[in-house]
Each structure stands twice: as structure tokens, then as C-alpha cells.
Design a protein that fits this description.
Shape: globular
Number of domains: 2
Oligomer: single chain
Order of helices and strands: EEHHEHEHEHEHHEHEHHEHEEEHEHHEHH
Largest sheet: 6 strands, mixed
Distance between the termini: 59 Å
CATH topology of the largest domain: Rossmann fold
Number of strands: 14
Strand order of the largest sheet: 3-4-14-9-10-13
Helix content: 40-55%
Radius of gyration: 20 Å
Number of helices: 16
Structural class: alpha/beta
CATH class of the largest domain: Alpha Beta
Length: about 400
Amino acid sequence: MDSKGFFGQWGGRYIPEVLYQTFQELQDEYKKARQDPSFWQEYEELMQTYSCRPTPLTYAGNLSEHFGGARIYIKREDLNHTGAHKANNVMGQGLLVKRMGKKRVIAETGAGQHGMATATMAAKFGFDCTVYMGEVDVKRQRPNVFWMEKMGATVVPVQDGSRTLKDAINEAFRDWVTNIDSTHYVFGTACGPAPFPEMVSWFQSIISKEAIEQIQKMHGKLPARIYACVGGGSNAMGAFTHFLDTDTELIGVEAGGLGLDTGKHASRLCGTDASPGVAQGYKTMFLQDDDGQMLETHSVSAGLDYVGVSPILSDLWEKKRVRFEAATDKEVMEALDLTMRLEGIIPALESAHAFVQAFKEAPDLKKDDAIIINMSGRGDKDIFTIAHAFDDPSWKEFIIKRAEEYKS
């Protein structure tokens, strides 16, 4: 990142003047933390004692045998506290909030995992917490909403626009402008104005810091490829960072939805529907029309339907360091089903996008090659969506009976 917050032509800090001092304070505190070895040590100790790190790298022997090509390894961020990679970022930002002396945190969330992680961090550190969540996502991620509220967070359903992640981000920024002295915005992904893209990526880089050591110990050499799903880009940056200076190929998998030719998807860097734009405080590739109005997106996963993407990933895409692919909803459900049946592991719908592309490519690699799939989260949160997508009759019967019980 350069001095103005750009990665090549992408990024920057396009913010209202009222937020300038707040961002400068955050930038200064972040720089101090990066230059202070004791901060990272404190962060790692917190993640080890509170969030079960390091997360394991699991050899998926049954999947490897099934596809007959590369050895498949899964980086198990689902075993991180709160069930996803999101804790890596929020705990780091929580330590910064303590340093800045603020008492309230706000966040946006799509799939609910970032909101869940923020509520958890706030409970641990004693902060007041408000989470903004699109009304559509509130409905399809009700279990996460329940837990956020039980941990003391206020969850605000956002009814503007498409009522999904981008609208939750807009509402969180409105809150921050109003409460800048007391509040820190715990941005959930590697997007937004500088220093958020770099800062979130730094905290998430603990994933690849562990993985690069684990794979060499288990496999004896670096992996041929790493696969990660891409919404905003935090788990992908976490999985890629320590491999950027190696020969390992990096593949980001976006939400192909109903197909890239249908307009019902959320693919920015793999498809052709996105274009450069400035929104929500930074420049990147956005799904937008000719007037700069954001397009509707679609994905079976609540966490991948964002209209933009990390400016760092836009830069790596432009430099051809990261290859981008897309997985359709149908492919995601098939990969999820296969992984559950062969390995007894339940990926989140977001994570399953990465499994799709890995499964397509693993058979064409050598048997002494290894690939890593970053499993960004677990699928427990998606049980309602997954059961509906599988059209499971016993689940429908269960829901109907429970609804009748509530009525009575």
C-alpha cells in the first residue's frame, strides 16, 4: 500500500471530511501496532488461548482418493472460535480499540459470521456493540442473529436497497459519522477506505502464516495451488498473503450464482459485468450499471453477494498473480454434499465455492502435488438454507411442526 492507501490504481480513502481525523487516528494506531513486535505477540497469544489457533491443516484422504490427482488439504478455519475466519480480524481490531480507548463498536455483516465474531469480541472486551445486517440476510441467517443478540449486541435489520451486505455497510458508515468520538467501525472484510484493506489482511494473514509451515511439515514442500472463496476478500487474503512471494498458484472463487450469463451472480473479477468505480470509500471493481448505480447480486451464500471486492485482490488480478473463477449455486451444493459424505466435514456455503474449483482441477495435477482449500467457515449457520436447497422433506416436516407449536 502506498502513502495514499492505493494498491496500484485500486483502493484509496474517499471519505467525508468529518471522518478524516478518525481515520488518521486509526491509521496511526495501526502503524504503531505493526511496528511493535509485542502487539503481534499479544494478538497470537489471544488467538491461541481464546480462539483455538493454530487451526489444523487436515489431509482429506477420501477426497484425494476419489479424484485421483493431487493430495487435498483443508485449512480448518471452521474450527476457529465463532466458526469462521472472521474472529482473526475482529480480535485484532479489538486490541486496537482498547489502545484507542473507545467503548463502542459497530459492524456490518452478511452471512452473520462477522457480526457473530464482533459480538463475541465486544462481550469479551466489554464494548457496547451494534451490528447492521441486511433484512434479507437477517431472515436467512436467523441462528447467527439469535446468538448475536444473546451476547448483548443490538442487531439492526437494514431495509434499504437490496437489503443485503452493501446496504448494511452504508448504514454502518452513517452510524460512525454520527458517533465518531466513542465508536470504532470494525470493518469485516479487506475493503473500504485505507487502512482497512491492509489492516484486515494483516490480521487474516495468520491463516497463511500457519499454513505455509503446516504444509511443508506434512507434505515436504509448498502446495501447487491454494483455493479460497472471494466475497469482499478477507479469507482469501488471509490464505494467500504468505504465499505471494512463492511459486504457488493462487485461485479465488467468486459466486457464480445462477450463471455468469444470467446476471444473477456476484462475480466481479471472473465475469464481465463489473467495472472500475468508487463507492463506500474506495476504488475497486464493482458490479454497477453505466450510471454507477450498484447492481443486484445473487448467491446461495449470504457472505459472497457483495457488489465490490478487495482493492488488493483487484491489484493482484490486474497483475495476474491471482486467478479468479466462479462456482454456481448448483455446483456449490454438489461439492458440499460430496465433502460431507466423504470426509464428514460441513463447509459453509461460502467456503464450498472454493471446494468446487479445487475439485475441478485436482484430477489434472500430479499425485505428488498438494493443494490447499481454505475452509473459511462451517456450515452449521447455513442449515436452513442448505436444507431448503436440498429440498429435504424431513426438514420441511420438522419446520412445519415447530411452526405449529409456536402458534399454539
